[in-house]
Amino acid sequence: MADNQKMSFIDKFTEVSVKVGGQVHLRSLRDAFTTIMPMFILAGLAVLTNNVIFPWFLEGERLASFQTFGNVITNGTLNIAGLLIAPMIAYYLAKNKDFENPVSAIAVATSTLVIMMAVQYSVTPVGMEEAVTVGGILTYGSLGTQGMFAGILIGLLATEIYMKLANIKQLQINLGDQVPPAVGKSFSALIPTLLTLGIFAVISAVLIEAFDTDLITIISTMIQEPLRKVNTSLLGFLLIYSTGNFLFTLGIHQTVINGSLLDPLLLVNMNENMAAANAGEAAPNIINSAFVTVFTQMGGTGGTFALILAVLLFVKYKPYKDVVNLSLAPGLFEINEPIIFGLPIVFNIPMMIPFVLTPVIGALIGYSATAIGFIKPLTVLIPWTTPPLLSGYLASSGDFKVVLVQLVILTVTMLFYLPFLKISERVSRKQAEQAQSENESQEVLETQIQR
Predict the structure, then answer these.
(1) Torsion-angle region of residue 87: left (phi > 0), alpha (psi -120 to 50) or beta?
(2) Is 188 helix (H, G, I), strand (E, B) or coil?
(3) Following CA atoms 380, 381, 384, 389 in sequence, which dihedral angle do they give, to the nearest 10 degrees?
(4) pLDDT tens across 184-232, in order?
(5) Which of 200, 205, 307, 396 suits a disulfide with 402, CB 3.0-4.6 Å?
(6) φ/ψ (deg, to 5) at 180
(7) What pTM, to 2 d.p., does this model score?
């Protein structure tokens, strides 16, 4: 009875998790971030080039001239993060909802984002100490990291309003089949576009004139920053990340939780660190996107590269050896589905425990080493497929102390995996013996029947 209740709870938990992961807005958010992720990785490489490679052989004015290369890349990627994410979310949301003209949603979301920005900014001109108020400009501050969460919300909200209006037949202008399809779609979307942009324009004007603020500032100060402080705090990060890993042990990919609740905010932290490094300032955020790759999930979700090492060094059980031989090459590049489903870890109680807790150990060691000042916060966004040790070297702009911390994490987590691995091996051996005994009994029974 108790087992049925437990399975019932797991089934219900799984069902809810699948629904959350398949929710169209969260799915669109993940699709959008996947699309623009190469641009942020390029920004990380630009920061690495400007602050590590060029200083090796350049200095003074010549160094500053060469660093223009990295600066323009940063401006076209990192510093317009909000402007990039809003139209991408709009497109994927419209596409995932089977909207007839998803491209038009891109234009609406982009225009809406700019409408909601301030009309004047306080800036400090080069060579001056006092700030001046300037109109007719858009700043990288409002378009970039600060406006990223606003880009997410506006991309979702503006697209939803636009699609609802566009689906009202009375608001559609039909020019008939005589005009080219592109022209027909444009006129069909004319009134919904006008209404959507008009609604947001009224809101923006009221905020600016009556309250001397703008929506980007409100979202940044009242939503983005409080949420970021909670979710990317050490406790919030560990809780959310562990929940995602637990889902993976039930066969549900961890991005269902982490991709929605953590990744956007970790990327904001990462962007701030890259911007600080590019400006020659100290990086402010310990927990960021690179922190996950370097410390929390070396070898993939669950830190399974440590598990691979444990099997290679300490286990002689042939089925596990065979799985690891197939998993070693993918695991080196953080692709660990072969070992998760091959060992398996999924629904394997002894292995579920270290799979959930190993990333916690890695995160605590990496966080502690940074908090005490042994290493600095990571400042380069690297591809999540970067192998262990190389990932630490690149993400830290060439700090070998980060590689040393990774070696400590690998050693500790490998030893942590080992006792659970031994238990799992015993369970597997007993199950194999039972299966063999049952087969032999069945063969004897069949022989007796034949006689």
Answers:
(1) alpha
(2) helix
(3) 0
(4) 667 778 899 999 999 999 999 999 999 999 988 898 888 888 888 888 9
(5) 396
(6) -55, 145
(7) 0.77
